[in-house]
């Protein structure tokens, strides 16, 4: 599975109502650190398959979801399980750190 683009309109359906845990990456095209973690998130999406979903929300196109989550800086990552946030992290991290964070949270 690859990452899923999520919009303000699809946020509840794709994230809050998901049957599997969801990692949400709030990002923007102009954000250097966001671009750094993008490939790692794609790899993790493929490795986890349908155990989890990795969703990407472009904050420029979808400001309401970011505002609702209190996102002040990007990249901002949240893990949702059963519709609730169980963990969050800010800033770019190496793939191993992202994987460890996901494993500890799901």
From TrEMBL:
Residue ranges occupied by any Thioredoxin domain in the UniProt entry: 1-106
GO cellular component: cytosol
Annotated site, Deprotonates C-terminal active site Cys, chain positions: 25
Positions of the record's site feature: Contributes to redox potential value: 32-33
GO molecular function: protein-disulfide reductase activity
InterPro entries xref list: Thioredoxin, Thioredoxin-like_sf, Thioredoxin_CS, Thioredoxin_domain
Keyword Lipid biosynthesis: no
Pfam short name (any one): Thioredoxin
Domain of life: Bacteria
Alphabetically ordered keywords of this record: Disulfide bond, Electron transport, Redox-active center, Transport
Annotated catalytic residues: 31, 34
Disulphide-bridged cysteine pairs: 31-34
GO biological process terms on file: cell redox homeostasis
NCBIfam families: thioredoxin
Record-linked PANTHER family: GEO12009P1
Assigned protein family: Belongs to the thioredoxin family.
Stated name of the protein: Thioredoxin
Organism (species): Sedimentitalea nanhaiensis
Lineage: Bacteria, Pseudomonadati, Pseudomonadota, Alphaproteobacteria, Rhodobacterales
